[in-house]
Amino acid sequence: MANPILKTDLKIINAEEGSVFHFIKNTDVGFKNFGEVYFSNVEKDCIKAWKMHKEMTLNLVVPVGRVLFHFIDGRKDSEEFNKLHSVVLSQDPYFRLTVPPMFWFGFKGLADGLNLISNQADLVHDPEEVDRKPIDAFDVNWNMNL
Amino acid sequence: MANPILKTDLKIINAEEGSVFHFIKNTDVGFKNFGEVYFSNVEKDCIKAWKMHKEMTLNLVVPVGRVLFHFIDGRKDSEEFNKLHSVVLSQDPYFRLTVPPMFWFGFKGLADGLNLISNQADLVHDPEEVDRKPIDAFDVNWNMNL
After folding, report:
1. In this prediction, does ipTM exceed 0.90?
2. Residues of B in contact with A111 (CB under 8 A)
């Protein structure tokens, strides 16, 4: 079964004065619609969990630092209901994750200094569209090495 | 005359585990269309200049570091042809600049470490749409304190 969380390798164009990091174009696989783009920082060893978007598709990159993500398939009609997907996002390797609606997710900062996530979402933020659970709602390994 | 470069104050939502930084929504003033979003880093004391987009509208933020931007009005039919606009983008104050087509721009990294620019553009990158000039094409003050 194809992974429902799409991974797309992204280019970094290096130059002496500073690099350029691709994120997402309207022609990319994984692009659905433009609702909003925003940034989240997560401090080292801090965990933000759990949220689920009932309608939003996420496009996630980490242009600064390293972040461990856990995703849990919350699609009740899926053969993979409750399946865990764990991924570290960073610049090396640098890639984008496209996360469909109905996945629970949580994340932890791994690097000293900034751990900057950017999300390009197909919808504008709407609190009605988000479900939340406390951090201990799912038993996952926050100390895994990937 | 209204400043052709629109400045929009943006929210930072602080939390102990890490902050959230708004960037742009499809309902925002300044939003035109979604072509692409990408990041550029510029090293401290390094200058990237000059480029002009003939068709692209830029939406610029600096979520990490501090960057001095110079913009020169290149609209030949404008009363403000050749007028210089100089702005420092950072997180404090945190705001977005919307830059119409036909402005020459260059920028310089001011902070130690990362100076990360993000651009939400209404068009996908197209080299045919970009004009370039060497750094000495315009005589501006790269050491100004804003």
Report:
1. yes
2. none
